[in-house]
């Protein structure tokens, strides 16, 4: 047990430990999970900081993500260029935010970005419709979807500008204590 | 044309902004105001379309990120509220890196004075990419080392403290890694969460948490009571038959299992001359277990309350939670599909509820509903009281029954009856669901829980009353051991019934549901009932540890087996829950239950035992004493004769034994509680006012936008020839819309800074 690993330098591992909510062992475990996704692509030696991106198709096929209705948005939000292809840094970041140690505000920030499909810093009607469609998989009719979205805006829009800002979203999350335990992916 | 006083209003509004910002803002505003007067832009059209074209306006990636981060930090942390907001310039061509740089400088400046632990926490909580966090960390370290070079007299003390905190952090990391590696059942819990979601997972987490309590109690009692007793154990002359595992009597009577076996002497080790006073060890060990359980419960309760307690008047049973609280832990494909279907059903129900919300009931209907509720409560309370009376009657007549029947297995009759009651009556209570109607589904869950809790607590209560008032005073030979045996039998019978229920009952239900009456289909895991059973068993264990020190060990094994049995049964016989179950709130409630009737009841029972009851005369560590507590009194007496331990005697006489001290302590605690309560009330009022302010802000914004629209329309109608000018100007609406956007968030930010300053 100890510092026998050769994947990262000591400083790199310390930096990862300080910037995520994971311990050293968990970081190594996550690295091997990342490496398993694309063994030919990901080198076993990260001391030289190689620039390697695992394509979205492989990320989306992970057992923790493959049936999640929002997997594409999650990958897009955490990837570097918003296209879903993730480096190791992005990968660690993603699971760090989705782990149980992340505080509520951090999770709320990223949840807001995930539900903001058009990336305009507001969850507008269109974003809500996309969310509801993904959640219900076509079980609801179009009028019901619109009714639901209107109701959500009614309830959560504090400043009545027709869309949810980050503050509205965070305010709403305060009233939903389950958010912390449900916005959690165990790896 | 926007009137002058309206423009002035906007400028005056921002006078209270910190001075550094004011010049920027006011200059921008003057510029914008002039443009307003010319009304040569179309802010309105880009704001009123709430769609994708908005994103074109905030085009520069850096600007957007910087604004996002600012909004995040403004709402997150007070220290970040010190970062000044540098409004972007009207000219969109200059990349706003200066803005971001200034913000980063301020962030670094705020991070430097923090201790390393807080700094790491702050960096982790930043919503930035890994690369940015790493750079931030590097820059902070560089700045810090630069600063420490400048400070020539580096205090040796702070250096020492730094190295100590670094060592502490490293050891904490090692410890958490170690705990993680021996953490039980991680993979199993992941599979359960993946298939059934967080609500069912909460039951298994609760079970694991209770297991930790029992492991700790066992380790403590084993090291301090059981092992010393083993060194002076007498030979066991009784016969061993297999029935002992169920009755707990017979061979087990003379083992370390029961109180009666323990010696009352001071064990003296031959070689080293170390004295080990068994009486004190017994009392102190049990006290230590209970005190650590108490603190652990209080701490957990406080954490859960802080995270999950919401003010009931701002709680909304709305649809928003259903939409935004998708359970990300579910990973199984079929479970996801099922959850999506269930969510759709719930949403449809919620929509139809909303349509029916306005239907008022007639007086007649209200009265009928009320009387049905009342009748249900009367019946359920009556049944609970009847069960208690039956148990008491059975317990009282147990002795004669036993003497007349002479069968060693006959002692199991009482536990059998109690377990039957615990099995049958909760299911009887759930029948009431058919007749009672509740407006809010949450009320129904709470009512069922309260009825079940009342039943279980009253049964334990009546049994404790019986044990302490009848058995202890009956003059039996070793009444503590008798009570210990009773508790052991109760626990074991409860365990056997749970096993049977899981293996037979749930299995049969599945067969009935899938083959015979297919409309029933698979059942759902009843989390509340199962958690209550766990709480009931844990209460018995806490009471029984005094009389049967090996009980935590038995409960440990029980819980271990229960986990696997429940897991297998869950996978085979159950389907995922169809309704949203508010896991966090329920868990808070259950932990509160574990503390309030359960643990406090245990403390009361043990207090009565130790202070009021006479120990049996010829068995156990306290034999011959008039009360259990007299061992402490005699110890204090012996200590007071030794000069070096007088401080212990002083503490005992003036702090623990003195009424005045407790009186003053209680008074202080009450005063502090009252003050905190008043502060909370004040904050609630503040929240309400701020909420109203936000709504008013929105209305102000709408009002201004309407005014601008009207003005622009008036302009258009007045000067049709300047339409070409407008079209050209329309092509760069960006910066001005951006300004408007900025101004709105500025005003919000300013207000939040003001509140932050007023709160500080």
Keywords:
heterodimer, A: 187 residues, mainly alpha, Recoverin, domain 1, 2 domains, elongated, B: 760 residues, two-stranded antiparallel sheet, two-stranded parallel sheet, 28 helices, globular, disordered N terminus, disordered C terminus, mechanosensitive monoatomic ion channel activity (chain B), Transmembrane channel-like protein (chain B), transmembrane (chain B), TMC (chain B)
- Average pLDDT confidence of chain B is 77
Oligomeric status of the shown chains? heterodimer
Overall pLDDT of chain A, averaged?
A: 89
Shape of chain B: globular
Which two chains touch over the largest interface? A-B, 83 and 79 residues
Distance between the termini of chain B: 42 Å
Rg of chain B, please? 35 Å
- Biggest sheet statistics of chain A: none
How would the blueprint of this fold be written?
The complex is a heterodimer of chains A (about 190) and B (about 750).
Chain A: H1 10-19, H2 24-37, H3 56-59, H4 71-78, H5 88-97, H6 104-115, H7 125-136, H8 142-156, H9 166-174, H10 179-182
Helix pairs in contact in A: 4-6, 6-9, 7-8
Chain B: H1 4-13, H2 19-38, H3 43-48, H4 53-57, H5 61-76, H6 97-111, H7 116-124, H8 130-150, H9 156-181, H10 186-196, H11 198-231, H12 244-247, E1 266-268, E2 275-277, H13 278-308, H14 320-324, H15 333-356, H16 363-396, H17 398-405, H18 413-431, H19 441-471, H20 479-516, E3 523-524, H21 527-544, H22 551-573, E4 574-575, H23 583-612, H24 630-640, H25 646-656, H26 659-718, H27 723-730, H28 734-759
Parallel strand pairs in B: 3-4
Antiparallel strand pairs in B: 1-2
Helix pairs in contact in B: 5-6, 6-8, 10-11, 11-13, 11-21, 11-22, 13-23, 16-18, 16-19, 18-19, 18-20, 19-21, 19-23, 20-21, 20-22, 21-23, 24-25
In short:
Chain A has 187 residues and is mostly helical.
Description:
The complex is a heterodimer of chains A (187) and B (760). Chain A folds into 2 domains: 89 residues, Recoverin, domain 1 (Orthogonal Bundle); 79 residues, EF-hand (Recoverin, domain 1). Helix content of chain A is 52%, strand content 0%. In chain A, α7 crosses α8. The model of chain A has no long low-confidence stretch (mean pLDDT 89). Chain B is an all-alpha fold and 760 residues long. Among the domains of chain B are: 350 residues, no CATH class; 56 residues. Chain B is built from 28 helices and 4 strands. In chain B, β1 and β2 form a beta hairpin. Chain B is globular and about 115 Å long. Chains A and B meet through α1, α2, α5, α6 and α7 of A and α5, α7, α8, α9 and α10 of B.
